Amino acid sequence: MMPDFTDHLKPRYDGTATLQAERAGSNIDVDELAHHLLSRDGFLERQKKVVDVLSRDPLFKKDQQMNLSRPERYHLGLARAKAIQRIVRREGWSHEDYKMCEYVNDEMSPYHLHMTMFVTTVREQGSKEQQAYWMPKILNYDIIGCYAQTELGHGSNVRGLETTAKWDPVKKEFEIHSPYLTASKWWNGAMGRTATHAIVVAQLLLPKKGADSEGYESHGVQTFIIQIRDAKTHQPLDGIVVGDIGPKYGYAPMDNGYMLFDHHRVPKLAMLSRYAEVSDETGAFTRLGHPAVVYGSLTFVRGQIIMHARLVLARAVTVAVRYCTIRRQFRDRDSKSDQDEEMKVLDYPTVQIRILPLLATTFALHYTGELMYNMYNKSRETIEKGDFGPLAELHSASSGLKSLCTMLAADGIETCRRAMGGHGFGGGSGLVGINADYLSKPTVEGDNWMITQQVAAHLIKKMTEAVKDPSAPPKDPTTELFQFYLKNRKHRIPQSVVHNSQIDDKAIVDVFQWRAADLSYRAYQARVVEKKPWTKLMIQLHALSRAYSEQILVTTFYNSFSTTTTSTLSGPTPSVLKTCFRLYALYTLDTFASSFTLTNAVSPDSIPALSDAILDLMTELRPHAVKLVDSWSIPDFLLDSALGRSDGKVYEELYDLAHRRNPLNRVTFNPYWRDEEIVLGSGDGGRGILAKL
Amino acid sequence: MAPTPDWVKQLQPSGPQGHELLAAERACSQIPVEKLSELIHTKEVLDRKQRVLNILKSEKVFDKSQNYFAGRIDRFEAALARAKKLTNLRIKHGWTLDEYRTANELISEPGPYGLHDSMFLVTIDGQGTEEQKEKFLTKAEKYEIIGCYAQTELGHGSNVRGLETTATWDSASKSFIMHSPHLTASKWWIGSLGKTANFAAVMAQLIIDGKSYGPHPFIVQIRDLKTHEALEGVHVGDIGPKFGYNTMDNGFLLFNKVKIPHHSMLARFSRVDPQTNKYIRQGSPSLVYGTLTWVRSTIVMQAGSVLARGVTIATRYAAIRRQFQDRDAPEWEKGENAVLNYTMVQIRLLPLLAATFALHFTGKAMMNLYQENQKKMNAANANTESKRGPGPEELGAGSDSLADLHATSCGLKALSSTIAAEGLEVCRRACGGHGYSSFSGIGSWYADYLPTTTWEGDNYMLTQQVARYLLKSARTVISNPSAAATNDTTAILSNYLKRSEIGCAFDVLSNDTDIVQAFAWRTAFLTFEASKHRDEQKKPWNDLLVDFYRLSRAHSQYMVVKNFHEALESREVSSQIDTPTLGILRKLYRLFALHTLEQEGSEFYASGAVTVKQISLARTNAVMKLLKEIRPHAVRLVDSWAFDDWVLDSSLGREDGKVYEDMFYRASELNPLNRITVDPYPTSSVLFKKVEGEVGRSKL
Ligand SMILES: Cc1cc2nc3c(=O)[nH]c(=O)nc-3n(C[C@H](O)[C@H](O)[C@H](O)COP(=O)(O)OP(=O)(O)OC[C@H]3O[C@@H](n4cnc5c(N)ncnc54)[C@H](O)[C@@H]3O)c2cc1C
Ligand SMILES: Cc1cc2nc3c(=O)[nH]c(=O)nc-3n(C[C@H](O)[C@H](O)[C@H](O)COP(=O)(O)OP(=O)(O)OC[C@H]3O[C@@H](n4cnc5c(N)ncnc54)[C@H](O)[C@@H]3O)c2cc1C
């Protein structure tokens, strides 16, 4: 770029100085809080190590991504996926390091499914021999895998899948077949262009039993490991049609695919047979053992989704908080002097109310994520000992939390983006890509609306038990809560959580728990006692799941204050965290006020006091906002945001991106409609672009 | 990639086919779709759309099939080619302005002539003198000069008075000097500026003799008319890729002491006398507020159909998508359930379906009000002289209808664009996995619509103007409680005051008019609460912003409910539509109102408009019952919005229900990625083994 007069221009207000002043205004020890939040498995050190390497490699420069077409994004995605593998080998990095690479590279890699669902399925569902055969090939990337469950016609309803695997008792083979268009596999990541192998979930068809019966019957869905492309030419094998499903809202570098089979034959060994087997001789189907571990891994995946949700939301909030302290707009309306500077927009309560409760939410998610992590590890041991009891509780909690947390994060990103006005819409916000990519989360790993039914079903069951035997020794906190509820429901006095502008933390926990218990009881009444149709209850059940999950967030956050790790944090940090707890709780309470009053959790007359209490809490939190987001330690490389830069050079970066790094500005167009030419001087009469349509 | 083999071509979706399912949906309702369409759009508009659509479909350049795949530069290049073609067609077919607008609407992507056609022309027309119109407008209308509207800067958007670009009067040369003193003075976000425009209407601080007179509009040439390169001292370009709107070249612009002639300043309302170097104000700028109100009313008007696109797609798809058998279904009942039968899906889609109608009728009412008001103003305006300063919401609050109109348009713009934007995302998510595909047609439409929540007044900012107006009205009513109400706002406020000792009892669950009353009551209650805080307790303005936001929201919701109700009671509607259909529209009204009431329950309760029991009944009984009653009519109701498939550009929303066939066709036949064969192994540095035909290469 040629030098020009704009090279010397400075922004009117200095963003760097603004952030410095913000940081000077709070005594939070950022390093200490960062370690409190993120020290598990050396997360912070690992993040630094990986960012140092990737950010120096030109292939990982992010500033042109948004200009690229879909095929170009995939091209880039594959190049990066390969490069990461080579870096990992070169540096001698671990699997955790590899996962960190994916995290800071921040795009869905075409290898993603290989090292997640593909390898996990083989590991968990393959027999010993199958594992011995496949695992080395997988870990060495001799084959590249994907996970093909969802079809064009079925996603949530796995039992409704249409792809069939028909046993041929003569040849001792399976015939994989797609009888309908809707049987086409669909959405399966890495399958479109990249994978050589797939885990295919299909209906197992076996000859009908009994001497005189004919035809086949289904034994439910089973998993098969199937080669789909030639190892050398990378062309699909005969009888398989496979390709990429096209562009999506986000996930541009990922080749989600479709796949159809035409009576495609695979050997018997293709069926993963740790838990189920077809007999060679008799063609009989046997189940071996309990596949609870499968639920276990699903629960684990959801636990990770929650931990991830916390960081995703933290990222959006980091951008919004930093930018909104640097952005100034209008002098205070009540200001008396012309000389006053314009207000930072983060000082407007209508901006605060959008961002600060979300800042508080990041911490609420954190403590529950920790809880899930611990719960999973605890119950994994008992599962391995053969006791599947705790899994139901865990699985149900994980579904509800997955639904709530991914929704909070997905909606939170968008709220932050909109709170930043016009620049939030720009590519420099850094929230465009993350928004689009993250929006898949409410749907994948269990549709957020669908899976709330599992939570509700579980709670109804628990409530039924509690009603039957209200004084049985409680096995878990939920039963304990329900028993407490049943004892007290006749003489409940609705509470208020604010008394003369004093906030009662115990009462907060009580009202969240009461509401969850009461909604559970109502659901039990409607379904078990009054036998209402399930479909009619769905909305109510969804609300129940949400209330139950919110209760977990609030209770867990509250309990963290009695642990030593939190209470021994230095300076104002413990009390600021308490403010976050209160803000999250009161904000949620205010938003769903009528749900709390209708359940007799709180008294309707106590609701109006909430708005002032919330304003006060936000005022308390405001001076610490920048340091709190600093503690989440999101590196600039990952933020990839002009607005959220840690050094506050918002406008300099926006301008640099627009002026010096924008390929559109290297083209001069011909704007007059009488000339068909589009690019000035090209003389192609507009044919260039027409050829691409 | 190998061509699609025959065995694939012969495959069909399993179970009942999409077109059969939609036919069954259409058979279970008697709604006369065409009649209802005509009520919504009028016959004239429907015919016009069809006429224009036929022309567009026959031109290759408007082919949409690669839109979802292309990169930024190709998207822009195609958009420019389309804009040019459209201008050609306009001449060729002698299109009226309405027809030209219809064409743009049908193409539904922002184009590089967008700001020229709208704000540039409007600004010159509205703020230029006759000579200036002669000089600029004539050429602009012929596209000999192409313009844009450059107000927002890198550092300032909402606060227009804080703009940093200066236009300093140089008495020696009798010209203005345009200058950007800071980086944050750079114009930013300006549509059509980045690559297309050669002129700009620039808002800059007028400075005479060291004194600032606030922002004024200047018509400035920025690029050479032949080479299209930036003029000396002008620095201009595109601001880069965005969340959406990527077919538009939003631009930046900086000036390095650029001299422009005296006639550049648009001088209908104020000018600099070149002889005396004095600033002179003339005429009333309240017409400018008229334009603002018009723009906002248009946004309200469009919100209904913007949302209806998403609702159409999601409703049709949910009627075809079948997932699970009903848990309570008897053994012998085979087949899966359409997801639209799940109340969990209904509660997301049907209130939005109701909202499309609510917003539509509200928009129409707004437009009528605007037009009536323009007539009155033109009559009265001839000799009033008012000062630039506070907006009309403060000047004549409580009495004059312009103030009422202005405030209403602010609040409704905010509410309706929020409902539409958020509703589109709800629709997309309700489609499950396939909603995430570009082929759903919702994602890009949503992304392009999102800036509407920010421009023409940020949706949160605008609520302050509504609150200001309501506060002012409250003062009028409090100071003279017995005076006759001058408009609807003072009427509901004084009614509340009169009855505040007696209280109220609204039968919202069975009486449609009482619903409107309850919404009015809550608005009045919140207004007097705000007035207590601000006027009695003297709380700082900023501390009240959240209350103001809620107040404005309440007021706008009241307006929507009221307008919807009035429309359904009007002769205009009842004469055009049969009684059963009218009955269904009434149900939509109730669904919209009661769903809103239930969501905002605590405010209704706090105001005393309804009891906790009523809220509870609304939630568990009334809304559920309405969902069930409306469900059979859902497909016909969205049909009546009459979107052509070409416009929707959606696999999921196709009128013929061929969802899966179309998804598959686009993925396998139109998708350039499938022309690539890759080398997948990390050890090999080859990325693409084979590429058939032209697909983009990496350009890092
Ligand atoms: C980006 C992305 C990546 C993916 N990657 C993979 C992959 O690698 N491998 C793979 O196999 N799959 C993958 N999927 C598919 C994903 O798992 C499914 O999309 C998901 O399970 C949801 O299913 P669906 O799309 O069929 O939604 P549907 O079930 O069709 O849902 C449609 C709507 O109906 C509602 N609904 C459905 N059933 C009920 C009911 N019983 N009661 C109430 N409401 C109901 C839902 O809430 C939703 O609103 C991916 C999807 C996406 C978006
Ligand atoms: C796609 C697109 C196209 C555009 N096209 C044009 C164009 O052609 N010409 C043009 O001139 N402009 C254009 N704009 C700019 C647009 O008009 C501005 O973005 C808009 O006016 C908002 O201003 P802002 O971005 O400065 O937001 P800001 O004012 O910076 O708002 C940031 C945040 O602060 C809050 N805030 C600000 N002030 C206050 C206050 N006093 N009280 C409480 N909260 C406050 C807002 O609510 C918001 O949450 C365009 C913008 C976009 C996104």
From TrEMBL, chain A:
The active site is at 445 (proton acceptor). SUPFAM superfamilies: Acyl-CoA dehydrogenase C-terminal domain-like, Acyl-CoA dehydrogenase NM domain-like. Pfam families: ACOX, ACOX_C_alpha1, Acyl-CoA_dh_M, Acyl-CoA_ox_N. Its cofactor is FAD. FAD binds at residues 150, 189. Pathway: Lipid metabolism; peroxisomal fatty acid beta-oxidation. GO terms for biological process: fatty acid beta-oxidation using acyl-CoA oxidase; lipid homeostasis. One of its GO terms (cellular component) is peroxisome. Its main location: other. One of its GO terms (molecular function) is FAD binding. Belongs to the acyl-CoA oxidase family. This is Acyl-coenzyme A oxidase. It comes from Lophiotrema nucula.
Automatic annotation (TrEMBL), chain B:
One of its GO terms (molecular function) is FAD binding. GO terms for cellular component: peroxisome. It is found in: Peroxisome. Residues 148-258 form the Acyl-CoA oxidase/dehydrogenase middle domain. It catalyses: a 2,3-saturated acyl-CoA + O2 = a (2E)-enoyl-CoA + H2O2. It comes from the Eukaryota. GO terms for biological process: fatty acid beta-oxidation using acyl-CoA oxidase; lipid homeostasis. Its main location: other. Residues 377-398 are annotated as: Disordered. Residues 289-471 form the Acyl-CoA oxidase C-alpha1 domain. Residues 513-680 form the Acyl-CoA oxidase C-terminal domain. Residues 33-146 form the Acyl-coenzyme A oxidase N-terminal domain. Its cofactor is FAD. SUPFAM superfamilies: Acyl-CoA dehydrogenase C-terminal domain-like, Acyl-CoA dehydrogenase NM domain-like. Keywords: FAD, Fatty acid metabolism, Flavoprotein, Lipid metabolism, Oxidoreductase, Peroxisome. FAD binds at residues 152, 191. The active site is at residue 456. Pathway: Lipid metabolism; peroxisomal fatty acid beta-oxidation. Belongs to the acyl-CoA oxidase family. This is Acyl-coenzyme A oxidase. It comes from Lophiotrema nucula.
